[in-house]
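Teaching note: in complex prediction, the entire set of molecules is handled at once rather than each chain in isolation. The prompt given to students was simply: 'Predict the structure of this complex.' The entities are:
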Amino acid sequence: MIPLSAYVTLSVILFMTGLLGVLIRRNFIIVLMSVEIMLNAANINLVAFSHYLESMAGQMAALFVIAIAAGEAAVGLAIIIVVFRGNISTNVDQINLLKW
Amino acid sequence: MSDLLVLLIPVLPLIAALVNGLLGHRYAPALAARVAVGAVGLSFLCTIAILAGVLSDPTPREVIAYAWIVGGELHVNLGFLIDPLTTVMLMVVTGVGLLIHVYSIGYMQGEAGMTRFFVYMNLFMVSMLLLVMGNNFLVLFIGWEGVGLCSYLLIGYYFNRVSAAKAATKAFVVNRIGDAGFLIAIFLVFVNFHTLDYLTVFARASELSTATATAIALCLLVGAVGKSAQIPLYTWLPDAMEGPTPVSALIHAATMVTAGVYMVVRSHAFYDMAPAALATLGMIGGLTALFAATIGLVQHDIKRVLAYSTVSQLGYMFLACGVGAYSVAIFHLVTHAFFKALLFLSAGAVIHSLAGEQDIRKMGGLSRKIPVTHAVFLIGVLAIAGIPPLAGFWSKDEIMVHAFAHHQYALYLMAAAGVLLTSFYMFRLTYVTFYGPSRVAPDVEPHIHESPPVMTVPLIILAGLSVFGGLLGGPPAHFFQGFLESVTMPLGAVSPVEDLGDVGVALLVVSVVIALCGWGLAHYLYAIRPGVADDWSERYAGVYRMLLNKYHVDECYDAMVVEPVKRLGRLWDWIDRRIIDRVVTGVGHGANVGGAGATWAEKYVIYWGLNVVGYTSHCVAWSWRKLQTGLVNHYATVIVIGLFLLVHVLLVWFTSTSVL
Amino acid sequence: MFEELPSPYGFPLLSVILFLPLLGAMALWPQRDAGLMKKFALGVAGLELILSAILLYRFIPESAAMQFSERLRWIPDLGISYHLAVDGISVLFVPLSAFIMVLVMLSSWDGVRDNVKPYLMSLLALETTIMGIFVSIDLILFFVFWELMLVPSYFLIKLWGVGEHREDAALKYVLYTLLGSVFMLVGFALLSLNYHHVRDVYSFDFLELLTVSVPVSDQLIIFWLIFMGLAFKAPMFPFHSWLPDALVQGPIGMSVVLAGIKLGTYGFLRFSFPLLPEASTHATVVAVVTGLALVAIVWGAIVAIIQSDFRRLLVFSSISHLGFVVLGLFSLNFQGVQGGLLQMINLGFTTAGLFFFAGFLYDRLGHTLVERCGGLASKVPWLATALLIIGMASIGLPGTNGFIGEFLVLLGAFQAYWVYGVVAVSGVIFAAAYFLWFYERAVFGPLGTMVPRVLPDLTPRESGIAVALCVMIFWIGLYPSPFLRTMNGSVQAVVDRLSRGAVAHRAQDRMAQSHVVDHEPVGKVD
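The expected output is the structure of the full assembly:
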């Protein structure tokens, strides 16, 4: 029997990995992947607690998150492609269209 | 006699009026005339049946048709009261009415709108019957104004003539003044008795204080004065002669104008308790009798002479009421209806035969050309002048005897002077019209003809009534007064008549002598010495002109009442347009100015303030906008920091233990 | 007045009556053919008349109860509900309005050629709002209809008016009425606040408001506030100056509705009297309002005498008649209130009828100026006859409806204070003068030189209108008891409530007097 704390620890590790990826890495695609990692960390958390509390709600939420993550990935990639087509870059540092 | 008969009396002419009015344009006027006359004839038959019943049993009987106005204390039925007074009035209205209807068939032959004429006549009969039959004041009032309306319509029958239209309006409006007084009397009655039914009201009349009774009696008097053309509201009646002559005979001589007398007699319970009102009534009657007779002396229009004589005779009836001789007033009403209808109708026959000529200066010498008309006219003149044993003599003599017996010597003298004048101007009329040289216009002369039987037969019947009608109430039997006694017996204040004995006979002789004097004077002036009358009129030109212009009363009323009201109307209209409306427009303009001011304030004060705020925030924003790097990871970093801080704060907040 | 009877069989008759014209107006939207639209609109108006006749037939007479009651929650927090009911005061107005609307549709059948669809839609919408005013017994619902009525009225006057200044007239009418209703709304709000003060909840429901008493000083303020709204709409004497413009410039149909359906004076009887009995019987209030009414009676009649335009004459005659209505209501006794109420109904037949005839003359001559008429009786005898009948009813000839109303009003006024009766009676004389003088100049006399040679008499449609009006005139004139019985119960209830108000005044006066006699400090009395 794997204790709950193990899941939570895994989840924290994954989440921190993702978070750092988002904040530090410059490549847009990697940022996107990091976001996915954070979502999966959240999923692990949800499933773990769902099992622990013997409630199906968490697993349902996890399924939703997966679906949304898929959508998000699609949208994100689409944006990257558009930006790339505009001959700007896939480097996050150089994309400051939101400035002011 | 059944209730149905009573109801049929007014309903029959009503049906005829409705049928003729709504469908009359689809069939010939002659048929309409037959329908109308037939209906009145049937009413007359019903009346005879009722008369038979009342003669055997004179107790008053009420017939209720239906509840009319209901609510609260007020409960007014459309109901009828059958008692001797009503029956007498019914006989006059339907009887004389029937004769005049028959006469009208001949008189109105060939007139445009004959159907309309008969519709109005029938409507008039309905209203007049309601007036005399009603069992309460409000039904009386329907009839009262209804006859006014029909009078209006019939005076304005030749509505294309301006004078007819004006006379119609005048008649209605002047009558309305009287009606207003009558309405107030009705209110007073209701306030005091909480009912309007005759029987209840008169039974309890003695409960009234003298002041209240006087108020009611005087207000009723205002109504009676308007309807019966007494001073000061008589001016409409001579003008009303604009209507066709049968109308003048029926409405403005025999029936409608006597409604005031009927009403006074009907409500004599109030007058009996109000000596002041009674004195006023008698004085108005006496003055009118005299005053109208003086105007009648010099008029040239045959119908106007008769109109003033009607006013004068109505004055006699008022005078009779004023001395408490109510049944005598009704007696004179009846005889007057006979001979005045006769006079008007025969005058109508004269006018008819002269193709519409009414000016007596253009008549003369007609006695040979239209002998029947001449004969009946003469009977009428003898009757009204008070020559025994014709009807007018008996009734007028009764009035004078009563005035004398009640020690109202002033009224007696007025009446006596009136007899002299009446006799004079009626014979003057006869002489100028029927005797002497013909002054008829040459183009009319060959066409003078006797009227057809449909006109002369009613004349002959009326002449018979004028001759013998007086015997009903003459001394010594006084049958007529006895019949009415149950209704007209004066209460309280009025003392009973003393038996005058020989004095009565002396009075009788005196009045005959006076009447004969009038005749003699007329004979002298117009038959023996025809030039003298013209001499006199020149010698006393001032008086003559005054009389000819009817004392300028019409002009006075115009100047004192009509014009001021119109001027007031114009003034108020001006005020409405120029001042009240201006004030409103002024408020509007004020609002406009205010609006302009507010616009200025908005532009220069509020906007300015807003701009200050706007620029300030703009400047502040300029210095802070560098924070917006536009780099996603900067934002993400801030979010994460914020998240941590938020979680920390929440944990501190809820658990009071620091995580760090 | 407190009792409520639901609609028989639970059928929401009042709601149907209320919204049928509006639905009809909506159904007109997609239609294209003008002839069909007219028939459809007339059908809707006719159906409305039938329904309202059923309402009257099923109404229980001699009863003070609120009948055909329907109630739905609308804004519960403020105590505002969709509450419909009729009693003896309002029930007669429903068929009256429906009747007038049918006649208006008929009269403008050929007259209105432009924009037929919006015209008919406006008329039907107007009908709904008028019905709403008469059937709602929630103050806010009433107010909503009261204001909504202005919208179709404004467009009717502005777009289909016959005068040159119709736009100004429309604006004047709307602004005037709005000004008055602002005051009225404040008055209603104060009533509700008072209710809140007593019961701790808000309510605008007439029946609820009846259950709480209002302090007399507040009543006076509220009375005058509501008075402003009603007096502007009625319009009473000094507030009338929109009326000549709106009625002379507007289309005949609108003049008929404004002159024939007496909304303002209805408001007094519906709300002011029952809700504010002490204020309504307050001596100053009665003196001021009755004084205004008497001025209106005499003033309106005298100004009417000299008018040269028939429609303007009718405007002033209608101000005069309105004075009679107000005089009757503020006699505060049974006859007066009954007469005032009946007279409001009567004016829907007489004054409105005369406006129809002004319209007929306008259609024929292109004007209604008296000096350019003359001798019409020989050209158009039937028109002249019907005009005379309606005119006679309007000046109160016995046998017609006008007499019953005027008689009761005058009797009531006379009972209240004889001087009122005597002054008002003079209005009857002037009424005869103005109508007959007009009739003499326009209809009698020789044929006017400016009258067209060819002048058609009443068309079948116009005859229908004339006959319908005459039937009602004689029905109420000769056999008014069904109408009187319908209103008696509620009139009695109102009068009872008013007399309680009067008794309260007397008690207060007595108390004050007795204390003065006892030399007690006045402060203690309060």
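Point out the following to students. Chain A has a mean pLDDT of 86. Chains A and C do not touch (no CB pair under 8 Å).
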